[in-house]
Amino acid sequence: MPWDVAPLVGRETELARLADVLDGLPGTGHGAGGIGRGPTVVDVTGAAGIGKSRLVSEFCARARQRGMTVLRGRATEYEQELPYQPLADALADLDTETGIRSPFADVHTMDRFALQRAAAAFLARIAKAGDGLVVALDDVHWADPASLELLDHLVRHPPRRAPVVIVVARRERQTSPRFAASLTRGVEAGTVLRLELGPLDRAACLAALAPDRPAALAAELYAASEGNPLYFLALLQAGRPAGLSSLLLDELTPLTDGRRRTLQAVAVLGDHAAPALVAAVTGRPESELDADLRELTARDLARPGPDGRWALRHPVLRSLVHDTTDPLLRTRMHHLAAAELGRVGAPVTERAHHVERSLTGWDPDAVEVLTEAARQAAATAPASAAHWLGVALAHLPERPAHAASRRALMLRRAEALGACGGLRESRDLLHEVISLSPPGTDDGVRAAAVTLCAVMERHLGRYTEAVALLRRELARGADLSPAETVQLGLELGSSAPHASSYPDVRDDVLRTLELARSLGDEVAEAGALAVTALGEAYEGNTEAAAEATERAAALIDSLTDQDLAGLCEPLARLGWAEAFLERYADAERHAERGLVIARRGGLLYVVPHLLLCRSHLHVMTMRPASAVELAEEAETIARGIGSDELLAFVLASKAQALIPALPPGDGGALAVAEEAVARAGAGTRWWASIAWGVLGYAALHAGDPVRARAALLRAGGEDLAGLQPSMRPLFTEVLVSAAVATGDHEEARRWAERARKEAERLGLVTQRASALRSLAHVPLAAGDLTAAADLFERAAEEAARGQGRLWEAQTLLMGAPLTAMAGRPAHARAMWERAVRLSTEGDAHLLTGLAEAIRPTVFAETGTGTGTGTGRAAESGTAAEAAARTGTAAATATGTARVEAAVLSPREREIAALVAEGLTSPAIAERLFLSPRTVETHLSRIYRKTGVTTRAALAALQVRGELGDGGA
């Protein structure tokens, strides 16, 4: 009984869960209206032979019964360098059936990121053209890196609006850790269903698979198989306990030499061996193979596919036959296969697979095939490109005549390794290239290797090493050509500001710019201008930054994508410079263009910076959902690259995007920010300070002002010198809000004044609006609602002048309650309604939640609120509590609204009275013989009961006698 057509035993629970997946697909007509809330990826794991493929086959059969299109592909053990092999396998016959062209037909005409998006869209179109789609991929633990990247993309971006299910069957311990982690994150997010297959139940296994065998023998064979169905069926066929390998070899014993050779050819050629290729490697005409293949089919050793190609019945059998084939025969078969594929004009990547396995020494023609395959795969599958170049290098003779070729191939391989995320391996190889390239070599390889090595070091967060390497090379002076000097100088301008500060390298960048201009090298000139623009923008030198930005943009806009292909990082720097200068539309235009170029060129390490630039812009312009998505894409790449500092920056950006995306009180952003600072470690430069600053921002919104203050001071120091100068007012606003929340109004005043001075120096709209919000806390603490409301209105007007809708909406919500209480209810309502419109359009759950929290306060003075008396007071208190979780001044405004008859315990009233006297928490703790933490706990309860969030507002209630005694 062939194992994979035997009855499916003991998997009822798994099949029921798979049926639920189909029922939950959108637009299929199944389940509860086709809502599509369930997982869209199924992860089937288990040991070899445990029944993964059998379960997947049953699932596919049931999907076909529902009218769905089902595609099946398989990764294979000996073809792991072939790009996209399992996906291309699954889609091989689809073109003629649907009329929709597979993106894999044009695999070498696009970059791998574009291919991933095209593949996802392609699957969605196939699904919508019919009654849904199932793509089932076996043995994914053997998939090539490019396929795993594509599957990772589908896990992160499941086609939820299309009825698509991706099924992957794999062995857990042999799976790439990165892909396994991606699947695990999908399980946690609810987009992936994991089915872990264990041994079959003994009673069910014996009843279904061995009903006619003696009970004692069947039980003995089951015990020997340990519940593995493949092993158990092989034991049943043999009728005796034995090892699986020996049982499978026994099946080959009756074969004639010719049939054994045919079987070996199929094993060597892969799961889809075309008869013509089998004939070529066996040296026999196809007509003579028919009888062999019929016999192999009858013995269930080989099986024909729908395309007329042949495969062995199971990967375990293929592995056994392949490995027991004489190595010399295997090599000859691969050589004959490569020759036949070359004769018929097969793709060079397919030929490279066989060329690699037939090489036994130096063969210039074979190496030419490998290097051409690497060239074609560089953009779509750089890991495969690096592999083939490694094979070529391994066979290159160690002779002086080949020294230049060796260094050139090593440099190309280092580029490919860097592109696919192997930064450390790339750097180590580049060190070797540098050592093999003595100064004065005129082929440019040494300078290119030093520059690329510095890029790798920079993206690994090793800025000091990058700068030292570049300065040593630049010190060679006359040994360098002007073009090499420019090349090295550009990278120095990129690396050095991370190691020290931009002013330390400003003169170097200026010299590079002048040299590039004198050479007429517009691309290099654009690169130097972009470095200048970002450096000056970061430092807050707005006028110089604006000038450099405009010059860089004008030059870059005049260049073609091909011009910038080898130097696309300037677009990332220009985009960030424009973002800091609050030129959001220009920044997004350049970041988008940079992404196109970086993806087309396969520059994986550049992509996160461009994604994060766009994410930042989407936050500022109130598109938090897409901002989070962009940051998550950058996170996937950063985790693969392995740079903790880069990951810290990525996670900080993700946390920044999550704050407006999540509702008030959600701790998700804080958790991400905590991981960001953990990754940053003891760092103090730009990315580390950003991580700590965002942690402070997230802590404030999570209702922890003490931690917010500590995080900001950790980021910037007591003098804030460590904070990004061009964004200091926004960061200082966190300190102001934290001081207000803890009742330290003098500190709030000092920080607010600092924010005002910084904003005046910058002259940037968003930063001025932030400073005005900070300044509003000063009159608010003194009880001057009118002055505070006026400052918030001015801040809102200032924010509206820019393109940053986030800050406009947030400022309107912060000021609306105060404007209402200051006697301008109609204006307050207009402010609230505009803020709600902006927040709703942007799907900013934080702000829509805040808007609901302050609604009773804003509308109470107009007579349109609901409820009266205590009921309305309770509603206002609840609103204040919700608003307080956002850490904004709106919480203060809500709290000073209508708090009537708040009921406090005697101890709470005692503490409130001392607050009204102006005592700090430590002073209160000392007077009442309590710990400061206990005092803060009581204050938290008081704030919750009264709806206020500041000591000033609490003191006002105490003075007015509005704090009731609960008698407890």
Structure description:
The structure is a single chain. With 968 residues, this protein is mainly alpha-helical. A five-stranded parallel sheet has the order 2-3-4-1-5, with helices on both faces. A hairpin with a 5-residue loop joins strand 6 (302-304) and strand 7. The longest helix has 18 residues, at 112-129.
List the main descriptive attributes of the protein structure presented here.
globular; 49 helices; five-stranded parallel β-sheet; two-stranded antiparallel ribbon
What is the tally of beta strands?
A: 9
Helix tally equals 49
* Rough outline: globular
Distance between the termini: 79 Å
The biggest beta sheet reads: 5 strands, parallel
Widest β-sheet, arrangement of strands = 2-3-4-1-5
Q: What gyration radius follows from the Cα positions, in whole Å?
A: 34 Å
Mean pLDDT: 85
pLDDT below 50 for ≥5 consecutive residues: which ranges? Answer: 31-36, 861-902
Label the structural class.
Answer: mainly alpha
Oligomeric nature of the chains: single chain
Helical percentage: 55-70%
In terms of DSSP E residues, the strand content is under 5%
Task: Give the helices and strands, then pairings.
Blueprint: H1 12-23, E1 41-45, H2 52-65, E2 69-74, H3 85-91, H4 94-98, H5 112-129, E3 133-138, H6 145-156, E4 164-170, H7 177-189, E5 192-196, H8 202-209, H9 215-225, H10 229-238, H11 244-252, H12 257-269, H13 275-282, H14 286-298, E6 302-304, E7 310-312, H15 315-324, H16 327-343, H17 348-358, H18 364-377, H19 382-394, H20 403-419, H21 423-436, H22 445-459, H23 463-474, H24 482-499, H25 502-519, H26 522-539, H27 542-558, H28 561-564, H29 569-580, H30 584-600, H31 607-620, H32 624-641, H33 644-661, H34 668-680, H35 686-701, H36 705-716, H37 728-741, H38 745-762, H39 765-781, H40 785-801, H41 805-821, H42 825-842, H43 845-860, H44 869-884, H45 889-895, E8 902-904, H46 906-916, H47 921-928, H48 932-946, H49 951-960, E9 963-965
Parallel strand pairs: 1-4, 1-5, 2-3, 3-4, 8-9
Antiparallel strand pairs: 6-7
Helix pairs in contact: 1-2, 5-6, 6-7, 9-10, 12-13, 12-14, 12-15, 12-16, 13-16, 16-17, 17-18, 18-19, 19-20, 20-21, 20-22, 21-22, 22-23, 22-24, 23-24, 24-25, 24-26, 25-26, 26-27, 26-29, 27-29, 29-30, 29-31, 30-31, 31-32, 31-33, 32-33, 33-34, 33-35, 34-35, 35-36, 35-37, 36-37, 37-38, 37-39, 38-39, ...
